[in-house]
Amino acid sequence: xxxxxxxxxxxxxxxxxxxxxxxxxxxxxxxxxxxxxxxxxxxxxxxxxxxxxxxxxxxxxxxxxxxxxxxxxxxxxxxxxxxxxxxxxxxxxxxxxxxxxxxxxxxxxxxxxxxxxxxxxxxxxxxxxxxxxxxxxxxxxxxxxxxxxxxxxxxxxxxxxxxxxxxxxxxxxxxxxxxxxxxxxxxxxxxxxxxxxxxxxxxxxxxxxxxxxxxxxxxxxxxxxxxxxxxxxxxxxxxxxxxxxxxxxxxxxxxxxxxxxxxxxxxxxxxxxxxxxxxxxxxxxxxxxxxxxxxxxxxxxxxxxxxxxxxxxxxxxxxxxxxxxxxxxxxxxxxxxxxxxxxxxxxxxxxxxxxxxxxxxxxxxxxxxxxxxxxxxxxxxxxxxxxxxxxxxxxxxxxxxxxxxxxxxxxxxxxxxxxxxxxx
Length: 424
Known about the structure:
alpha+beta, 20 strands, 25% helix
């Protein structure tokens, strides 16, 4: 967008935040989701949810961030759980055998069934011979017995029970094969483009194995943490006892890092040692995925290296809060003469630590806002930048309705706009 005949006015909001409101008499058109009119105005503001500093102190020193650590894994990724922002990645889109990381999807679907009312924690689930005969890690359910869905869920999440995975899959879909089809449908809906499932446990066979990418695993892990808040604490439980047998959670970071509170480990010969983990520190939650490491110790060490880097050099910064008013603009041809513009939800961004004071926000809406207007009507966009890099772009809406004014009011406003455009 090219600005001509630019006038600048400095204002200060009620919290002391310095704002610059720029009005342009001639703005050329640009590509934008709200580029409906040739005339616009832009509001530039500094870090709206932080206490404003004196003008001379507003610019923080540029962020100095070292290169990411070397990670001894075939594939890995680190993301901010709040924003989904990727901080580090390597071969993150390569489809690989996930081993028991598959069970994150299995338990996700089971919890979705509970949330949607198709299953309860107390629902008795029949244990088939196929489920009972599963090899590898087990919950040790008995053949032809009935087991509560909650026990099976804990068996999957904490003990990585292959028998529990097959049992819950058969109960939900009728067969494990049909459940695998459900898994693939969920993966498609979530945008997990490199995932393909043929079973619920992640066990490899001579003929096939499931595939997932590190990015796909970060997607399903984030969905688990964010959307299944009431069930996610299961992932932090250190042990589970069923049928008189107590087994510890295989995620060793739960015992050595107080910030880690989930998610899941995996291992097969084809997959190597894998770990999806989540940790929270000082209001920031990170999710890491490492695939194809050399040992149980290696997957823990490499995960901690990712967490250390992410927490030390980045932060989750809140830019706006739900319902916050960003600007007040004049309204033409309405019963009211002005309108509040704002956002409908909390807005967070991931930035280098300590750089919140260098954020700027540009509110881009039509120059002539004309009634009638509905409450919640889309009015434009807000662009948040850091050192000229766009890090967030979102909608701004009308915070109240404005009815059309009287015929006389509309005529007078039309005349005002006509002569204003004529002589500008």
